[in-house]
Amino acid sequence: MKRRVCIFMAWLLLSLTVTIPVAQAAEFRTFSELSGKTIAMLTGAPFEELISSKVPNVGEFQYFATLPDMQLALRSGKIDAFLTNSAIATLVSNKNDDLTVFPENLGEALFGFAFTKGSKERDEWQKALDSIDPSEIQKTWEKWTGADESVKMIPEQDWPGKNGEVKVAACDTLEPMSYSGTNGQLIGFDINIILMIAKKLDKHVKFTGMDFASVMPEVQSGKSDIGCGSIMITKERSEMVDFVEYFPGAYQLMIRENAGDVSGEGFFQGLKDSFYRTFIRDDRYKMVLSGLGLTVLMSIMAGFFGLLIGFGMVFLRRKNILVFNGLIRGYSAIVMGVPVVVILMVFYYIVFGAIDLPAVLVAVVGLALIFAVRVFTTVWSAVSAVDIGQQEAAYALGYPDALAFRKVILPQARQIYFPMLQSQFVMLVKETSVAGYITVVDLTRAGDLIRSRTMEAFFPLIAIAVIYFMLTWLLTRLIRLINNKWNAKSRSRRIKGVDR
Prior knowledge:
It is built from 18 helices and twelve strands. By secondary structure, the protein is an alpha/beta fold. The strands form two sheets. Strands 1, 2, 3, 4, 5, 6, 10, 11 and 12 form a nine-stranded mixed sheet that branches. It has a three-stranded antiparallel sheet with strand order 7-8-9. α16 packs antiparallel against α18 (458-486).
């Protein structure tokens, strides 16, 4: 009863202190006007039934990984509305003159922190939360939903932490609840509340940022103890995890505003401002450089180990042992038939689910095993294309099998497989972009985090695309130089010691 009273009081204070602006020129004003329209939500947000209970005959549901992606889709007319909660709706409408909140709520709910089903720690955290003064929680809410950025700091973990450490999976793109701040530090209302509770329990907290869709699997797999990030408690979610109820909220739809023509800034001034927001403000270029470094590191390591494994498979295949042949065929069929992102998630949440292995290392292992199959198929096809007479001639000269393969067959096959491996490696570099699904903050993920802060998609996406283009171009040039060094056709035909 005490808990319900606290929630009611907090909701009353919220209603009195937070006013969600609704434009007089909203594109839609009633649920019936949304009939047949396209409505979007974040991946992992199961609210189709809720929307359908209010909007008759929804035209189509679409799903996006990040909030900026939904905003761009709404602005460009690809969708007509998107679902979010009252906290994010307030922030989005305050930051964007062309977007506004739909006049009617879809319903009220509670924000919650997710715990593994049956977790004993859940009751402990709920009790500690209940002991915090509701007015203190309300002040924290006003701090993170307010306009004063100078006060948006999380408390330092200066308590002893005698009762151990908890791992928290947090969505890092949903301002003001949980998002990546300066230098990649996770901040927000959710983060602040968790630290307030942790101080009561004398526990230290280790936060890991990720996509919203990855938070629940992270908790369910046991890789993290708690999940947070603007999670609204639903019946379906409660069947998968247990929740600590910490703040009231409401479901809102964001729509376009039918405002008149607004004289905007010039193109070059807008470009300059976007560059500043994307790279300079809060030293965000450091996040891009860090993401670029991880992308290069994963590419080189996965490429190196993939080459070793791939050539090892070629040598095994040459032995023509029935068991090895069957294993290689089965392994190749699985890797070639399953999407890269699915393979990485299987490795992260299932194969290494019970092992506290860094996500970057899991990504390298997964990508290396994928690249190995491509190396094998490419090299084996090239080796098979070399005329059998070349091998027989090597045998006739007294070469053993291994030496004949290394000195005669491979050099000829190299002219075929090396250019193909070049394109395969470039593909590997681009495929590292899915590593963000397993919490790796690579180049693409860094762009997502920046977009979540700037609330714009065009410039950050173009900037990341240009960086990827330059990276792959440089790597391609480097591989061509290596190829020219090894290619017999590019070597000098001049005989040493002979003047022409």
